[in-house]
Amino acid sequence: MQQDYTYAVARIRFRETKLLSDADIASLNAAPDEGAAMRLLRDKGWGDNTADLDAEELLASEREKLWDFIGEVIPEKEAFSFLNVPSDYHNLKVAVKCVIRDIKPEGLFLYNAPTDPDALYEALKMRDYEALPEHLRELGKDATSVLLQTSDGQLCDIVIDKACMEHIRRLGKEAENEIVQKYCELFVASADIKIAVRSAKTGKSIDFIRRAMAECDTLDAQKLAQAASLSYSDIIAYLSTTEYSSAVEAISTSMSAFEKWCDDHLTALLRSQKWEPFGFGPVVAYILARENEIKAVRLILSAKHNGIPEEIVKERLRKMYV
Amino acid sequence: MSEFFQNSGLFFALLGAALATLMAGIGSAIGVGKAGVAAAGVLAEEPSLFGKVLIFQLLPATQGIYGLLVGFLILSNVGLIGEPKDISGLQGLLYFAASLPIAFAGLYSAIHQSKCAVAGISTIAKKPDQFGKAIILPAMVETYAILALLISILAIFGIAAM
User: Fold this and answer.
1) Average pLDDT score over residue span A23-46
2) B152 pLDDT exceeds 90?
3) More confident residue, A182 or B85
4) How high does pLDDT run on average in chain A?
5) Is B122 within 8 Å of A4 when comparing Cβ atoms?
6) Domain ranges of chain A
7) B119 to A277: CB separation less than 8 angstroms, yes or no
8) Residue A11 with chain B: CB contacts under 8 Å
């Protein structure tokens, strides 16, 4: 039986009124210093009223609030694995490197992952791959072998990153919801584009590029890899013939401009869910909108903390969902 | 066979009354339940909207009442309530046919009205000042339940006057 999200969507509709708009983000960016920006956020209901949190604690508490709320309205955590599973792969990279180099992974793990990072680290340390969840079992063994045999951390990373992209693509294919499908496709396609651009700039071989890229529906990974092995302009020429032609200008500017394009493109896709009263789409849209909001606030607070001018931050700010 | 049919008038009439009450009632139960879930979601966030969301929740309840009314009229006309009457097989079948508009229109209009009511609840969760406009949209669906009720009632009175 298909899950009914009516209750969750009704609660989300009200919470959407509390999301920060483009105007809110602009006034936050215009705040004279970090303290003023924090005060503005507290006025908007951010943070915990009882404690005086610093910027990182404030952002962590907002993320916790988001996932507590989502857990309350939709207790089935596996419904969101397409959002959380990349954290598992990040933690695997950290754990493999820490185990091989015999260092403690303090402060390096992401704790929003489906698999407990400490248990993951212990399993790798004991070479007990059977204790790992199925999607990390073989991969953990392979990544450890690659790092032991080659001492090439980058090679180890691309093995894990590719597995992550393939996992996300699989989740997208299995998903019934169109927004989840589009999110997963954009995740893989944007990762392929980043790999292509970075590989072209650093002169990587076609074998390396092919090993790093994952297949997706909106891009021909073989053609993109071929273009990346030739030159940067070949990538641009190929992308101009795809549905990512509107991203070419951003890619030509910088990787961070392309990341902003990806986020804005995603936000534009999500907007269709703003008035959708049923289904999983509005839930996903709210989570991604909130994550996008937290990302924007992190950028502003960090810029205020480091004295970066407002104009530079403005160029990097994402469009908001509301 | 002919005698059996002739004596089955009350059975067909009762079947009609049951169908009108049952189908329209099922539609309303589904509709009120669905709208109630959405209303509870909004109330969990903003209890002050109780009065407004309650009206949306109650909109799909009317079809069940229309079904009850038609069922009651049939029972009353065939003498199952009040003075007993002699009802032929044909009359019984006619009462059965008269129950069909509200039975089916009641079922479907209540379910679809609830979808519209849920959307309306979402609208007032975001914009409480738009209550007046938001309530009109699901109320439009009511038109078709009323039209069906009208035909069912006219048919019942027509059969009684035969």
Assistant:
1) 92
2) yes
3) A182
4) 92
5) no
6) 1-80+176-322
7) yes
8) 41-42, 44-45
Q: Whole-angstrom Cα distance, residue B14 to residue A291?
A: 59
Q: SS3 letters for A14-64?
A: HHHCCCCCHHHHHHHHCCCCHHHHHHHHHHCCCCCCCCCCCHHHHHHHHHH
- Kindly tell me if the per-residue pLDDT of A88 is higher than 80: yes
For the beta carbon of residue A164, count every other beta carbon within 10 angstroms: 24
pLDDT tens column, B86-100: 889 999 999 999 999
pLDDT band at B3 (very low <50, low <70, confident <90, very high): confident
Judge whether residue A140 has pLDDT over 60: yes
Chain A residues within an 8 Å CB radius of B38:
6-7, 9-10, 277
Query: Does residue A8 sit at the B interface (CB-CB below 8 Å)?
Result: yes
Q: Which stretch, A60-64, A237-241, A313-317, has highest mean pLDDT?
A: A237-241
Contact yes or no for B41 and A15 at CB 8 A:
no
Q: For chain B, say whether A45 makes contact (Cβ under 8 Å).
A: no
Q: What's the domain range around B116? A: 2-161
The domain that contains B16 carries what CATH number? 1.20.120.610
Nearest C-alpha of chain B: how many angstroms from A19? 11
Is B118–A8 a contact, with Cβ atoms under 8 angstroms apart? no
* Contact criterion met (CB < 8 Å) for A14 and B42: yes
User: ipTM of the predicted structure?
Assistant: 0.84
pLDDT grade for B1, boundaries at 50, 70 and 90: low
Residue A170: name the closest of A156, A158, A188 by CA: A188
Choose the closest CB to B122 out of A4, A9, A73. Answer: A9
Question: Which residues in chain B are closer than 8 Å to A10, comparing Cβ atoms?
Answer: 37-42, 118, 121-122, 125
Q: Please give the Cα distance from B32 to B65 (Å, whole number).
A: 13
Give the tokens for residue A220. Answer: 């021909």
Q: Per the CB < 8 Å rule, is B41 touching A17? A: no
Q: What is the pLDDT of residue A2?
A: 61
Segments in chain A forming alpha helices (H): 6-16, 22-29, 34-43, 55-73, 81-100, 117-125, 134-150, 153-174, 178-202, 206-212, 221-230, 232-239, 248-253, 255-270, 281-305, 310-316
Measure the CA–CA gap between B146 and B125, rounded to whole angstroms. 29
Chain B: closest CA distance from residue A171 (Å): 29
CB–CB of B34 and A6 under 8 A? Answer: yes
Structural domains of chain B, count: 1
B103 pLDDT exceeds 60? yes
| Structure token pair of residue A298 | 């992190």
Share of chain A above pLDDT 70, in %: 99
CB B55 within 8 A of CB B135: yes
Q: Which residues of chain B neighbour A275 with C-beta distances below 8 Å? A: 119, 122
